[in-house]
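R.M. (postdoc): so does anyone remember the format we settled on? I'll just put the structure tokens first.
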């Protein structure tokens, strides 16, 4: 009797003949490896961005913004090798806030200094208005005459001395070049934080003597505080003054210098009436601070080649 051959029995015989089969491994998309216990290193840029505002002042605040932005760019990846993204964000935020705060503080400081200068000028006029005792012209002239005669202007050697808060320089006739001496005095003024002012004088000049004798007055001390007053005789240095485009037909003259030693602004004794501190101090105080606008005569500065500004 013949045996019927079924498909299942045929496959089983084939399987027994070929031996066991190997199954291919299946990939699990949700399979994750074990978490690493080692922490990633902290980004140096992120750490610097949080420390810079507190260690380096205004520059550190600006640097914190840069470092924080750079750290965020460094850590803005899928699998960054460092950590500190939140720290970099905080550092950048601190940098922005402190930069605004420092800017406001600096602006307030500048405004305060301007207000202080305004108050100094206002105090000069207030003191003048509050003076109730006035000396007669004869008594004033008699009291000022000994001091005026005691103030030397034309000397052989250059002398430098302090008159209260004013540094007084008398240029001696023995100097070879007034320009060189002026450059030397300007460097000394810059080192001392002073404003250099050139005063032209003449031997027979009552107004020049009045200014010199009035330097000890409190009004003049306030007006010319931190000023280096360089007095030069127009007869001894006429050619030098002409070469520097410094007018000397009216004395006393007062000049502020440009970087090339040429005068950038100037006034003379005609800006006030009687030569007394109450009249001179408000004018000179505003002039040396660059705030003397209402004047009787305008000054036209010149460049080296004589071109008017």
């Amino acid at each position: 009797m013949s045996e019927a051959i079924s498909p299942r029995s045929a496959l089983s015989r084939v399987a027994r003949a070929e031996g066991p089969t190997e199954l291919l491994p299946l990939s699990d998309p949700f399979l994750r490896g074990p978490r690493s216990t080692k922490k990633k290193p902290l980004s140096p840029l992120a750490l610097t961005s949080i420390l810079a505002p507190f260690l380096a002042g205004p520059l550190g605040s600006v640097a914190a913004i840069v470092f924080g932005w750079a750290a965020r760019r460094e850590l803005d990846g899928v699998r960054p090798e460092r950590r500190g993204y939140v720290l970099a964000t905080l550092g950048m935020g601190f940098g922005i806030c402190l930069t605004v705060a420092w800017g406001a503080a600096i602006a307030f400081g500048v405004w305060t200094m301007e207000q202080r200068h305004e108050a100094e000028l206002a105090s000069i006029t207030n003191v003048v208005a509050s003076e109730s005792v006035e000396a007669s012209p004869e008594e004033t002239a008699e009291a000022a005459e000994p001091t005026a005669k005691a103030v030397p202007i034309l000397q052989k050697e250059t002398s430098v001395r302090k008159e209260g808060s004013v540094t007084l320089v008398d240029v001696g006739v023995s100097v070879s070049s007034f320009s060189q001496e002026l450059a030397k005095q300007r460097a000394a003024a810059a080192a001392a934080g002073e404003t250099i002012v050139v005063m032209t004088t003449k031997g027979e000049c009552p107004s020049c003597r009045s200014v010199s004798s009035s330097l000890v007055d409190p009004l003049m001390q306030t007006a010319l505080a931190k000023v280096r007053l360089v007095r030069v005789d127009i007869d001894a240095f006429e050619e030098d003054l002409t070469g520097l485009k410094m007018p000397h037909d009216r004395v006393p003259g007062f000049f502020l210098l440009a970087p090339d030693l040429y005068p950038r602004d100037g006034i003379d004794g005609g800006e006030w009436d009687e030569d007394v501190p109450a009249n001179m101090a408000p004018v000179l105080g505003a002039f040396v601070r660059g705030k003397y606008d209402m004047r009787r005569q305008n000054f036209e500065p010149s460049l080296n080649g004589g071109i008017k500004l």
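R.M.: ...and that's the designed sequence above, right after the tokens. Also worth knowing: The radius of gyration is 42 Å. Strands lie at 159-163, 166-170, 195-201, 227-233, 253-257, 263-268.
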